[in-house]
Design goal:
Number of helices of chain A: 16
Largest sheet of chain A: 6 strands, mixed
Order of helices and strands of chain A: HEEHHEEHHHEEEEEEEEHHEEHHHHHHHH
Oligomer: homotetramer
Largest interface: A-D, 91 and 91 residues
Shape of chain A: globular
Radius of gyration of chain A: 24 Å
Chain lengths: 482, 482, 482, 482
């Protein structure tokens, strides 16, 4: 397994084509806008070497028997699924941020079973190919960017009905040695911190959409791949030179996101894991989604722990930690956070074995997990802002604190508890500001699918007919309407 | 293990002292007010003999190695804890009601570890005594009434400061052969369906409250024990002779509840499990509470399945099952229900072993479980009422349907879908009415402790200091206020 | 204006055809099931003679200049609309119940403008006819049953497509002297306390549904009219002879509801206010709905005041009135209640004059008023149940309290504060039980239209295009998509 | 009345002492960080000259009879109070932002009655003095910064118990010609757009805190006054030169906020309106708070209209405007928004006349108004983010769109509906981002007092004893506990 330093060094060797703010990023591995997000990924390497965390952070490869980073592991038991959630909470606690490495992990986990099932049904050879790739990823301890969400254009039209047919990634040419793909994937978390990109379809494709039923992997610096890093609230504070105003200077409070453009990218066949078998695009999407929704019961509760801690700290700094309404609000935050965690754990403990041997989460519970995450973090943020007070929206800058002219005023008048340095209070307020108004909130809502995506899955798995039967039995209804 | 028939027969042999509506109940085992609740308990026996459910409904005694009903089993693993929750959901689905047998189960589970720990510290002999009792319960396959909640009088005063010192059950005399106890326990679920009563203290007693630190068991027909059965919404509909208006004629929609008075009841020493060791009353209360809060993620989600099924059925009967807003409401009900279930599962899977070998649920997650149950079933009921329509509050009686004069009008005008008999529609509306406005709602709120009881436990276990540390690390705060 | 006594006497003169529980009610004016609801209506008469309330309870007829009961008044100003809401809150406070007289009032108010507009467009003579009827109602100070909701059958089908074409009230014969109508109206609040029935269509009828576009009035004891009184939770407690268990013995906690069957009822032309002009059925429905939704910001906040008072009282009786979480819950109840009231007031103050001179509420705000009432009373009930404690579901009966055998136990062990009689505590718990689990909750949800009905109206009046324009202006978007 | 241009010119004549980001702002009236907020204030001038809005935007001075800007008017009727709310909604719609001028308005309105009452009781001459100032403000059409919130230090200690006694603004010297004040006011909305500062105490002072019972006005460029402008999310995007990424380039999405330091500022007696009469500090605070809480039912619903419009527009741009779940979400946003508005209207319509002739809002309803604003805008923001999709957190910058290298990709792949320019879609997403994550959210929570401040007032005015009486009457309780 790589160390954090080796990981960072490996990034420097990539020849990524990256843009931000209209300009090419010359040295992506040292770019201050994305550096904090890189620090988060690096922690997934560092903790794997820390004996205190190795049980959660590492696993034994079912392919090679080697000790590997859990982010490259395919779950072989419910216990593996549970450890995945616990690992994510741990990292959420340590970074207060998104550490980005789980999307690629979930793409691999989904492929590990769906390629197997595709082969069983279609006589294809995807499973072996994928396992070769997986061994490579495990051996080199790579970060993969899981690329699913197409840009989609007009949401009212199917992929093949769009005016511009490239609104979903598709095969534009099939060659003897591979395929050429075109399109773009949006919301690619941590894209420039990844070595490889794993592309999956974004929805269940139909028979007449075979060109869109494509899954593959490609190095993130392949020719034709362009990364355009998106903006986030307060992103440029990272360029200001200070650290207070960033709130969480080391890790920022979110990963970075990019649109990844595939401008006629060539992919050799041994990196193609689905190509035209449209009936397997649906299972691939749903399975990936379930694994990814599971995660939110881990990472976001770790982040929630930080927010709860920040709210409790600022209450202390303000001198109100014993006020009953403050304690009620902290209790509510804890309750909401633990409810999300409980859901993440439950869908994992209730995992089941797929034909390939991979373990799958309980999909109904996984969808409920994520659905709670589209709600509770918003209420938690509101409660944290409530406890923190109005300064979250009015606090002067770090430079004001350090200004020869007005620093004395800031120092004097922004003091809370007399024993606490003003700077500490400012740091805590800034942490809360950046968490409550950060890109992580959008991620809670839309990551792993928007709320409605979960609702559709929840209803589909609700077994309403069985439930109707229960109610009819108890109501004494024997004859059903035909 | 007893059959359901043997269970009912055994009840008839008890000489219970029972009152309802101001009158002595001559034949409690055949009393129509409590019969449906007895049917629910009987199902815990019947299903244990059904091969389809034996994995959930039965267990192997850790004391004797015999196959026993799981309701008399002490969990020896996390898997046991999980099966407890799943068994409860199953029974909730089958009865749509409270089946009452879990309170006594949880009292036994709590005693199984606390008596052990008390002995370790105090040199007492409670553990062996309790195991003797437990073997008896397992062998005879008994129902135990778990009696915890004292009547409490003025909640602003401690037990020993009440004007009437009997507001908490206490020892009024210690004799060579046992103790004499006085007081009353409120909210005793399923009291007249039980063979034995297990009494626990209701709160952590202090050093000067040793007389209140008492735990024991006694047959439910012991001299001096008086049961006064409480009223429930629509209770007397069970006496009307029909079945439609009761909604759930076989099981009703709740167990029954009684105040159990101990009018100087003698308890021999071999049935006393705590007597004066006040420091162990707290652990006993908290442990019992955690196990009991765990349950609500099982039983109430089973009941929730019935309510969801009823809402889906009435939507079908009304011809609106495809309306998008109806589907959204059903989805929301499912989501809330599964969230409660996930919590119940998670606190069980995350169980841990106590010194006695008994497994304990994760208390933080168990409290969050129950806390959600104080909220979600109310929103689910509101949604079910919404879907069901105004007839829930205005539907004529079963007798009107069958009336020679107006039956034709009821039949004609209360028809929904032309293919569905009016009576079926009425049955389903009545089921929803009785569930939404039943005593089970109060149970969701106050069973296993009122909302504030959970909030206190949640905050106490929130590890706020550790969370503050996480936030300070990320905010870059090194120096803490002293 | 009639006195309360005169009103009750007038009811006795009606020859109503009433059924309850499968039997004909011989003397509807003295029937214990409906007597409490009659008491509520009687209070609308009594308070009109009380100088303290005459400003709210009475008005000056715009037709005759006479002093009349406000329940027969057509609002001639925004002030009249506001007084309507305040009168309803007053009565809600005094009865804790539904006083039933507003449905007929709103039917009259709606007819007062729509008949005018129909005449203007169609050359009909409905307005004068209606005013004759109105003068009669005002002079005799009558109660009118406003009958709108058809039984509807299969909600997926239009009236004329139902298998049974009588699922919506319709004209089955037109004669020289009048029309013959058939069908049934459901959820008729206070039906047997009314002198007259005013029938309106239940939805906007289409051109091919002219037979269903019918509005008329008829005495409630007209030949062919049959009342079947529906059941309510705990209805038969009123027959038990005591008063504690009813909770609110004088007024009960809801009005009564009936299905009113029109079994070929003849209506003379001078009592017909719409007959075939289908394009005016929509306005009639919407206008009635808006007035009726306005009301809920009055009556239900009055009822809410009682519930808040009951929760505060039981907290005091239990000795926890100073607990911070109890105060928070009471505060929340007050806040929710005042929000509903504010909405009711706002839609009234913002009323506007219709062509006939009648004032109309602001329909968007009126719909938001009612929509909040489909939510907040449920949360208020949950909070009241929370504060009240588990006894709401387990309290013994009044007869137990008075029993020679067990009365002493009930008296002793159900005492809260030592200074408060146990009976008082029981009364307060019963009031809360009956309010939280009463038919009034269904009314909050479905009265004046189910939640979705308001949502449709809210969206329709949201002026989304204007709001889109605001956002485009601010976003700097000049060119719109065509 | 000044024109917008005259207003801006008048600002340029001020010699304000302003700091931002650690540096002195040389030309505050042309500072790009605060320019958008200045544009918002300027609109309060411009619209007053627009005949379409003059009814709302202007009023007649009760002192001089002149036509004045309503922002300088003292309400003389309930209608005035209502117009205040409607004016604020209008401006919220036009700016999508905070226009800052209401704080000073409310300070003046509060002083107009409390100075009168102080004089009546204390024989002071504050009322005349204040009216002189008011005439000056009306004549010159000035913007006043209402300065209330002290920095407070340790919230657990009273003003005089703070380690640094300057944590609340206080009189440090009384001279023949006036007073010298020291301290700082936090969260001063629009401070550098104001001509005058009106200072009020922040809480009810006690007898031993007379030095803190001080109210006065002073020009905003008085010697010793220092403005330190606080940071807001995304503030520096205003310096980037583009306009798309700012979301609302003209007005930004919030006003600016500053800490205003009073470093021994001299105030002549004729500008002092309270000095030591501590018993009137409470009424001054509560009255100001009520007026200011009223406002939020206006301004924030105007802003809400913009957000609803933006959500509806982006739904259209994405091609999902007809999806039922999208329509449900828009409906919910409208409902919540109108509920806030209804509360604002109701507390105004229900205004009452104070001894001075000033009209006061209904304080209970005003507090409920604001309390809803601490909740609903957060849910509205969540819904808008839900509808808008994940791009809110991942959208590339305006510069990317315009980049010669990657502009083509952004243009192509971020297109929604084929007919809508990509830039329009980006503009709308940016508007939503900046609204949902803007300082305006903090303002919704903490402006005019934090949630708990309203809860205290709501409970205080709840008339619980009267409500208890209602419930006891209905429960049939005659004898009260003594």
């Amino acid at each position: 397994m790589k160390t954090a330093e080796e990981y960072v060094r490996s990034l420097k060797q990539l020849k990524l084509n990256v843009y931000f703010f209209g300009q090419k990023v010359e040295n992506p591995a040292d770019f201050p806008i994305t550096k904090p997000s890189q620090n988060s990924v690096a922690l997934t390497y560092a903790l794997a070497h820390d004996p205190a965390y190795s049980d959660l952070m590492t696993a034994t490869s079912h392919l090679t028997g080697d000790r590997i980073n859990r982010f490259t592991h395919i779950p072989q038991s419910s216990e593996d699924l549970v450890k995945k959630v616990k690992m994510l909470r741990l990292l959420g606690q340590k970074t207060g941020a998104c550490f980005q490495r789980c999307v690629g992990m979930d793409a691999m986990i989904a492929l590990s079973s769906v390629t197997y099932e595709t082969d069983q049904k279609s006589g294809s050879k995807y499973y072996a190919r994928f396992n070769d790739f997986l061994k490579y990823v495990q051996r080199e301890d790579l970060v993969c960017n899981g690329a699913m969400t197409d840009v989609k254009g007009d949401r009212g039209l199917r992929p093949s009905k769009q005016q511009d047919r490239d609104m979903y990634v598709r095969v534009v040419e099939k060659r003897n040695d591979g395929v050429v793909v075109r399109g773009a994937k949006a919301h690619q978390t941590g894209a420039t911190n990844a070595h490889e990109i794993i592309v999956l379809p974004t929805l269940a494709m139909r028979d007449d959409e075979k060109d869109y039923a494509i899954a593959f992997s490609t190095p993130s610096d392949s020719p034709g791949v362009v990364h355009i890093i998106g903006r986030q609230p307060n992103d440029t504070r990272r360029l200001e030179g200070g650290e207070v105003d960033v709130g969480n200077a080391k890790y920022s409070v979110a990963g970075h996101e990019a649109i990844v453009v595939f401008d006629d990218v060539f992919v050799p066949w041994d990196r193609v894991y689905l190509c035209g078998e449209s009936e397997f695009s649906g299972p691939l999407v749903e399975r990936f989604a379930s694994y990814h929704r599971q995660n939110y019961g881990g990472c976001k509760t770790g982040v929630g722990d930080v927010l709860i801690g920040a709210a409790a700290t600022i209450a202390e700094y303000n001198g109100v930690q014993e006020a009953s309404h403050v304690k009620e609000k902290l209790t509510e935050m804890v309750h909401l956070n633990e409810t999300m965690y409980a859901c993440g754990l439950a869908c994992s403990h209730e995992g089941y074995k797929l034909p390939s041997g991979t373990y799958c989460v309980n999909p109904l519970l996984a969808n409920s997990t994520k659905h709670n995450v589209t709600r509770f973090p918003f209420e938690m943020a509101r409660l944290a802002l409530d406890i923190a007070g109005g300064l979250v929206g009015t606090l002067p800058s770090e430079r004001d604190l350090k200004s020869p002219e007005v620093g004395k005023y800031v120092e004097k008048y922004l003091k809370g508890l007399a024993t606490v340095p003003t700077e500490n209070r400012m740091r805590m307020i800034r942490l809360i500001e950046n968490m409550a108004f950060g890109a992580g909130m959008v991620e809670s809502l839309h990551g792993a699918g928007s709320p409605q995506a979960q609702r559709i899955m929840i209803l589909r798995q609700a077994q309403l007919e069985a439930k109707k039967k229960l109610s009819k039995d108890l109501a004494g209804i024997k004859t059903d309407p035909s």
